Amino acid sequence: MAMKIQFEGNLSYQQDAIEAVIDVFKGQEKLESNFTVLAPTDQSIGYAADLGYANKLNLLPKQLVENTQAIQLRNGLRISTPQDIDKNDLHFSIEMETGTGKTYVFTRSIFEMHKRYGFKKFIIVVPSVSIREGINKSLQLTDEHFKQVFENVPYKYFIYDSANLSQVRDFATSDQVRIMIINIQAFAQDMDSEKATKRILLDYNDKLGAIPINLLQETNPVVIVDEPQTTINSPLQKKSVKNLNPLAVFRFSATHREKINLLYKFDAIDAYNDNKVKKIEVASITTKNEVSDGAFIQCINISNKSGIKAKVTIDIKGKNGKVSRANKDVKLGDDLYEISKLDQYFGYIINEINIELDYISFVNGKLTQTGQTLGGVDDKEIKRKLIAKTIEEHLDKEVKLNPRGIKVLSLFFIDTVAKYRLYDEEGNPRNGDYAQIFEEEYARIIQHPKYKLSLFKEVKDVNIDVTEVHKGYFSSDKRSKKSNVKEKFEAFKDTSGTVKADEDTYQLIMKDKERLLSFDSPVRFIFSHTALKEGWDNPNVFQICLLKEMGGSEISRRQEIGRGLRIPVDQTGNRVYDENVNILTTIVNESFTEFVEGYQKELTEDTGIKFGYLALESFNTIVNDFDEEDEPIYLGQDESNKLYKHFIELGYIDAKGKIQDVLKQAIKDGVVDLGQEFSDDVTKQIINRIKEVAGNLDIKNNQDKVHIKLNKQVYLSDEFRALWDSIKYKTVYKVEFDSNELINKCIESLNNNLRNQQAKIEHTKAKLAVDQGGIKADGQVKNYVEHLNFQVNHLPDIITYLQNETDLTRKSIVRLLKGLEPRVINYFKSNPQAFIESCIEVINLQKRLFIVDGIKYEKIGEKEFYDQKKIEEEDLVGYLSKHLVVSSKSAYEHTLCDSEVEVNLAQEFEASDNISLYTKLPSWFKVPTPLGTYNPDWAILYNQGTEEQLYFVTESKGTVFDEHLRPIEKGKIHCGKEHFKSIGSRMIVAHTIDDVYSQM
């Protein structure tokens, strides 16, 4: 027996939304308006002339404006102007996040409007068949609930059917509540006078005795538009709804494109933080150290736009010699060898792009289809990992939730039905790739002791056949058997989600909703088409996995997550509000960072939520006081506007409302300027409201900001000029080295430093934290790495490659490779390209380091030097709390340091009587070296207590010991010492002032 979902009528946020709708008509009397419905001209139908019943609004425009503004004020929203509210074209918006009961709210609002104001005629306009079926199902499920709440009020609901117009007559003539559900496509075409052919709603119907649209217009219905950003997005769609002659239009959505007279908002952030939807957890599975076995080619898609072409992913050699993967559009005759600049693509010239059979082929006889990979980790292996992870997450939740009577469901979205089910010519079904992988992985994973011993203690399905635990929901059609064309069989097929064939699928999904929630059904894993994404919103979906094909249909992260956000129910049909239970795990083939960035971007685009922004209405609902009846008196729109504009003037926010660091710092320091006096309680509310939006970015203290000025007493002194003259000259270098010794160094470094970069899969898992400051990981990000045994059979020409990229001779490279340990050579077979690039990096570094040992610097001449006057041109900015030291001996009034070591050293220079003056060398003071340019730290004038003064350069490091320095650091310091030696100066390395003293 299927369980029954129980509905709660006392959720405060839903009640607030309902009251926002109902209070628009506050002061409306219960009135009845009648009109005449004539008898049909076709007397055989049996209809007599009848009385029609209509809604009637008797409020004055001023009352509607006042009601709307009062609602908006208490809900902290932008206040509509009188010009925004036209009694003859009333539109209002309600924003509610997916999964928070939007359908329940507008359905209950219907009954409340009838109860309080006597309205009886309602039309729900929806954008698609799937949503239409979902609302129809919701009305079925809530029928008993609303009859209890509203004392068995008689009502009837129906889906508009152009073949059954008697329902339209009943809608007009009934004196009871009538609710018509219609998808916009069903009547928008009739409104297009130029294109309409059937004109069913616009033409007189002799069996009805009227023009159908006239009957609807006479009722002056309250129209509810679900998902208006899709339903009434075009001028024709808007005209169609207006032609219904609505008393008022209420627009419900989580993602409004136009927020017309917004009455209530319960957005993604509100729902997430109020625990009215599941928390989101991301399990990421991505490949690392991508490997190519010969030529790597992925065919992403084939199209016929602007000529036949294909989009492929291939390896491409960049100008720096590095190889990376990139997407390229290719056409007939294109040579991948020329495009990639890599030898392994020789012979890969495209000789056919077949749209019908979905493949590209090459002159060398190789071919690949869309979604397939040549020469790389098979995409099917990644899909296997995603499926296995979903099964594991699912079973872990079953162990935890089954004893509590909560059925766990997992949903796989695929965009090619053949990946789940295939048929032979006689209609015999067999598993597609994904169904086969699922059954293999489920059979393997279920044997783990943690599931075998504990799973289903209270349920009997642990040993059920694997074919019973998964099911596909797809549209289908009839096909003929080869042996007998008159004999048909039903087969799944790919669809767009909007065609006639999808209607039966949506009905099946809705019909099975409660059955799937019951332990009586063994089905726990559901496969469905990405095109049918809108139909799935089962509350007990705890895992969602998107098995998308390359080039397949798009489904956004937000759409994907939306199918599983609803709060789950137990076997009694009651919602379970438990944060430890309500976690939706989405299994994705992208990194956690990519997912979070993409999800935040989609939230901004879909909902208009701007993370880190204030709005004109941000402070509307700050409670300023209470009246005699203890009702709150709000700060209101005018005062909120003043605060917003004041913050712009102070630079706290920019012109668009984005919070600046100066406001965050003011909050941190407790010195926010509100522009006027408020009570302590109101001030606290305002600051808390800002904190909710501001996020927690690193803040630099603007009060500590310093424009660093020249210390002219030092800078213009003879001593500083003498110091600068001792170090200012430029040099060139030349090198001498033994090539045999270089090869030995390379062999040693490669054997010691090369690591096996075999292909691996990285698993990452973290919960999301969502607030007005943005989306981030909530707590620890867990990860582990799984190595792939990928066999490479086609090895590239490593000798030629290394020769071209290192300028070593073939003879030297052969000797070098022969000197590598067998362990290291085997790394080449694991990941040839990564091995080659590592070799290039190590060899070129060793070349530069080796060259340093034989380096000789020569002064260019007296006219080539670093000009002291450039110091005057620098505009330096620093922060007192960030490595800035007040200086009396330096060329600047403050010394901007790069580290704590430099800060300590600068302070010791200031305190030491031996240091007459010093300066931090500017970033443009660079010494050329084979390892890249080198910028030393300090120039110092040292006083030994005699007439002799020493001029020298100091490099400040965390250690003075060579062995503790990185090779490049060590090499650059050696070059620096040789440079200054060649111009008659000196350079030392120091960690503290004692290191300076010890080297004098």
Automatic annotation (TrEMBL):
Task: Establish whether keyword Isomerase is in the entry.
Answer: no
Q: Where is the Helicase/UvrB N-terminal domain?
A: 12-256
This protein's GO cellular component annotations are:
cytosol
Type III restriction enzyme C-terminal endonuclease domain: residues covered: 889-984
Superkingdom per UniProt = Bacteria
- Alphabetized InterPro entries for the sequence: Helicase/UvrB_N (IPR006935), Helicase_Restrict-Modif_Enz (IPR050742), P-loop_NTPase (IPR027417), RE_endonuc_C (IPR045572)
Q: What keywords tag this UniProt record?
A: Coiled coil, Endonuclease, Hydrolase, Nuclease
Gene3D superfamilies attached here?
P-loop containing nucleotide triphosphate hydrolases (3.40.50.300)
**What does the record list as coiled-coil region(s)?**
740-767
Q: Which GO terms describe its molecular function?
A: ATP binding; DNA binding; type III site-specific deoxyribonuclease activity
Checking SUPFAM superfamilies in the record gives: P-loop containing nucleoside triphosphate hydrolases
- The identity of this protein, by name, is Type III restriction endonuclease subunit R
